[in-house]
Amino acid sequence: MPTLRDTIAEDLRTQITTGRLKPGARLPSEPKLATHYKVSTPTIRQALALLQAEGLIEKTHGKGNFVRTPLRRITYTGGAGLPFAPNLQTTIRTTNIRARGYLRNLLKVPPNTPLTEFHCTTYEGETPRSVARIYIPRDLAPAAQLASPSWPGGRGEGRTETQETVTARLPTPEEATALRISPTRTVLTITRIALNSTGRVLEAALLALPSDAADAVFTTHPTLKEGKTDK
Fold first, then answer.
1. Which of 44, 80, 173, 207 has its CA 20 to 30 A from that of 90?
2. Looking at 34-43, 114-123, 215-224, which range is the least confident one?
3. What are 54-108's pLDDT values in tens digits?
4. pTM tops 0.90, yes or no
5. Of 88, 80, 74, nearest to 151 (Cα)?
6. Is the dihedral of CA 30, 53, 172, 91 positive or negative?
7. How many CB atoms lie within 10 A of CB 89?
8. Distance in angstroms (rounded) separating the CA atoms of residues 193 and 208
9. Three-state SS across the chain?
10. What is the overall mean pLDDT for the chain?
11. Is the pLDDT of residue 155 over 70?
């Protein structure tokens, strides 16, 4: 049996999807919604949290809840660089750091190995669409930048294998701030590791995209078994 929270969320969801509440429209205040639905304010907040997690509304501090304007979906192509869609622009900030903890294990390097961190944010207009942190051992960074015109995160020279792990989860506080999304809105995260023929990690990339406006596409090219020919 649906709870009051679910019933209220469904009613507001229907108003949004049918166009009764249009993109950019401000919802009534939480106390007014509570009076309208004859429930407590905490119940209203729970219903609104569901809609925020679905990406249907967004809360602006000090202003209220607004119906989100649907975003064009962007596509991440497996093994490639950053997500793609027409009119996306990317800002890149670099920092020199040392490999410790999680990064040391991810890159399989000794503690305190010098790394270059590329912090990349893609925008559509003024709206952030994805964030990525790309880590490269500093002795490889200059070559990696020159290896591919699609840098950062291209298929640079020397790569023989790319490992990618895709996860759907809630954003970290840093990701929620960078993407300007609710902390209850799910993100699609991709951890990409590029290796050379000796197994050395050339690059580790950590990407995050709002999952309701992004696709991840991976293409497999079958190889012929030994002894068989393509006819």
1. 173
2. 215-224
3. 878 888 878 899 998 877 888 888 877 788 777 889 999 999 999 999 999 999 9
4. no
5. 80
6. negative
7. 10
8. 15
9. CCCHHHHHHHHHHHHHHCCCCCCCCECCCHHHHHHHHCCCHHHHHHHHHHHHHCCCEEEECCCEEEECCCCCCEEEECCCCCCECCCEEEEEEEEEEECCHHHHHHHCCCCCCEEEEEEEEEEECCEEEEEEEEEEECCCHHHHHHHCCCCCCCCCCCCCEEEEEEEEECCCHHHHHHHCCCCCCCEEEEEEEEECCCCCEEEEEEEEEEHHHEEEECCCCCCCCCCCCCC
10. 86
11. no
Contact call for residues 80 and 150 (beta carbons, < 8 A): yes
Report d(CA 39, CA 158) in Å as an integer.
62
The answer to whether 140 touches 158, Cβ cutoff 8 Å, is no
Set out the domains of the chain in order of their start, with CATH numbers: 4-67 (1.10.10.10), 74-217 (3.40.1410.10)
Give 146's pLDDT tier (boundaries 50, 70, 90): very low
Residue 147 tokens, joined? 């290896």
CB 203 within 8 A of CB 105: no
Closest CA to 99 of 117, 86, 122: 117
Neighbours of 111 (CB within 10 A): 9
